[in-house]
Amino acid sequence: MPSSRPLRADARRNREALLAAAREAFLSGEADAHVEEIARRAGVAVGTLYRHFETREALVEEVYRQEVDELCAAPARLLDGHAPDEALRRFLLLLVEHAAVGKGMAVALESIMATDSPVFDDSRTQMAEALGQLLKAGTQAGTIRGDLSGRTLLRALGGICGMHATEGWQDEAAQITAILFDGLRYGAQTAG
Fold first, then answer.
1. CA torsion angle for 72, 77, 80, 86 (degrees, to 10)?
2. How far apart are CA 64 and CA 192, in angstroms?
3. Which of 18, 38, 166, 182 is nearest to 100 (CA)?
4. Residue 1: what pLDDT?
5. How far apart (Å, rounded) are the C-alpha atoms in residues 186 and 183?
6. What are φ and ψ of residue 64, in 5° steps?
7. What is the domain partition of the chain in residue ranges?
8. Which one of 49, 106, 177, 189 has the fewest CB atoms closer than 10 angstroms to its CB?
C-alpha cells in the first residue's frame, strides 16, 4: 500500500471487499482471475483496485499474507481452549489444511515467486514462531519433548504437505501428521 496514513472508512471497506473477492477467486482455483473481474466482484472500479494494490502481484501477496496471519493467530486461541499438546495437534492439522488452501492459490502465488518479495520467508518465520510457541507450552507442561524447534517441525511438515500432487494426499498427510505428533510426545518429561 503506497501510504501509511489510516484509510477512510469507505476506502477501508473497498480494500476489504477487494481482498475478500480476490481470496474467494484464488482459493476456489480461479488463479488467473483478472483484476477487472476481482474489482467487479468487489463492487468497485478497477482504478480503485490499483489505488490499493499497485500490481496484481501485490494483491496476491496481500491475500496470502492475510491467510498466514489468520493461521498464525490460532495458537493463542488453541492454547486458551485446550491442553498444550492438544493445541499443538490441532495446529499441525491446521497447517495441513493451509497447505491444501495453498494448493488452490499455487498458480496465483507463482506470479510473485519470481519477484524479490519477502512474503514466503516472512510466512515461514511466522509459522515457525507459532509452532515454537506451542512446542514451548507443551514442553513446560511436560507433554511434548523439548529438543525440537518450530523451524525444524515446520520443515518436517513441509515434507508431509509436499505430497499434495497426489490424489488423496490430505488424508495421508493427516495420518503422517498423527505419527509425527506421537513422536513429539515420545520422551516428554512429565511434569511432576
1. -60
2. 42
3. 166
4. 44
5. 5
6. -65, -45
7. 9-54, 59-185
8. 189
CA distance 124 to 5: 28
Predicted structure pTM score? 0.81
Instruction: Report the chain's terminal Cα–Cα distance, integer Å.
Output: 51
Whether 100 and 181 have beta carbons less than 8 Å apart is answered as: no
Categorise residue 142: left if φ over 0, alpha if ψ from -120 to 50, beta otherwise. Answer: left
Instruction: Give the Cα separation of 101 and 122 in Å (integer).
Output: 18
Cα–Cα distance for residue pair 76/67, rounded to 1 Å: 16
Helical ranges in the chain per DSSP H: 9-27, 35-42, 46-52, 56-72, 74-81, 84-113, 119-141, 150-161, 169-185
Q: Determine the Cα angle at 106 with ends 105 and 110, to 5°.
A: 115
> Cβ contacts of residue 186 below 8 Å, gap of 6+?
145
Length of the chain: 192
CATH 1.10.3300.10 is right for the domain spanning 59-185 = no
Percent share of the chain, pLDDT over 90 = 50
CATH topology of domain 9-54: Arc Repressor Mutant, subunit A (1.10.10)
DSSP-derived letter for residue 146 is S
pLDDT at 30: 73
**98, 145 Cβ separation under 8 angstroms:** no
